[in-house]
Amino acid sequence: MRALGTLSFLFLLWSAVAVPVHEPSAGALEVPGTKCSIIDNRREWRDLTTEQRSKYIDAVKCLHKLPPRDKTRAATTRFEEFQATHILLTDRVHLVGHFLPWHRHLGTLYGRALQEECGYDGPTTYWDWTRDDMNLPLLNSPIFDSVTGFGGDGVEGTYTLPSDPTNQTGIFPFPGQQASKIWKGCVQDGPFRDWVVHLGPGRMNTAHCLVRGVNEFMRSAYTVASVENVLGSKTFESFRLIIDRLPGVHGGGHAMVGGEMTNTYSAGADPLFYLHHGGLDRLWWKWQQADPTNRLYAISGPTTQRGRDNVTLDFEIDFPALGPNITVRDTMDSSLYPNCFTYE
Ligand SMILES: *[C@@H]1O[C@H](CO)[C@@H](O)[C@H](O)[C@H]1NC(C)=O
Ligand SMILES: *[C@@H]1O[C@H](CO)[C@@H](O)[C@H](O)[C@H]1NC(C)=O
Ligand SMILES: *[C@@H]1O[C@H](CO)[C@@H](O)[C@H](O)[C@H]1NC(C)=O
């Protein structure tokens, strides 16, 4: 009892003194694993009001005007800082057990930046590909609308991939797809038509337009039946593998948007990266919610691409320049800090 008393006294002292000293922001109250005071009810792009969509786009543009927090790295804006973190960690966070946890937290940090740094007051949004009419071209999706969406396709002949052989690594290996067709050209309509990104392609740092090469390739991965099939996975291991398998429901979305989205490293140049990954995260969330007792904290898969050790809940994941390290456990229950979201 006495030891316990001392411990809780020390804990009180720690919470009273240490936390405010190290975390002067509102984040001081956000102890991982505790209940959230506000829940972000994430909503699909077409379920946002027109005003919310326009505010979301404005916030993305705002993020790309803000300076990076860490000026020692290659990112020239706060938006690029998220892309830069993904580029830096690509080989550590893909085809591994913490692929979904890491991308979940990246999406949370990005959504929070739009809200806290750029005044977006709507829900975090995602892309549910199954809602696009399979009988119509993909470009008919409201996602690609030039007024209430992210703009459409790239224009052929307006962009040439630089020919640096070392840094262009990471283009998804889609069978039979030529790089020149996938990297079609600069997006010239919609809110990002004048967009300049300074990171990519791959690990190169070049100033270039937003490149897309929208195509129907892989749409079969996004029928209601294919997605139901993914959700039917019995174990986290089979769920993880079916999401990550190339080309599958993860790579497929990257391939359909084309351009920079097809580069494993620099895909985050396209704001659609976060809508696509939001869609994947929602699948994971739905899979967890279907049997929370067994699935909420289910995790497996290698800690490194070539390793044999499995990721555990205590495995630490990092987000250089974006936020503190957390553990895989911290990402599992979306209703607890640091997540604080649900899907409608
Ligand atoms: C190639 O990538 C490295 C990091 O891997 C970077 O330091 C270098 O600047 C890149 N080269 C170009 C031409 O972008
Ligand atoms: C890792 O997890 C998989 C799937 O659950 C399992 O088959 C494998 O034996 C585990 N590997 C190790 C080294 O524990
Ligand atoms: C965060 O994680 C990275 C990668 O595991 C590690 O190198 C770094 O030391 C950690 N930072 C802190 C503050 O623990």
TrEMBL record:
Keyword Iron-sulfur attached: no
SUPFAM superfamilies membership: Di-copper centre-containing domain
Key words of the record: Copper, Metal-binding, Signal
Signal peptide: 1-18
Pfam name, any one: Tyrosinase
GO molecular function: metal ion binding; oxidoreductase activity
Coiled-coil zones: none
All copies of domain Tyrosinase copper-binding, residue ranges: 270-281
PANTHER family: TYROSINASE FAMILY MEMBER (PTHR11474), TYROSINASE-LIKE PROTEIN TYR-1-RELATED (PTHR11474:SF126)
Protein's name according to its UniProt entry: Di-copper centre-containing protein
Species of the source: Coprinellus micaceus (Glistening ink-cap mushroom)
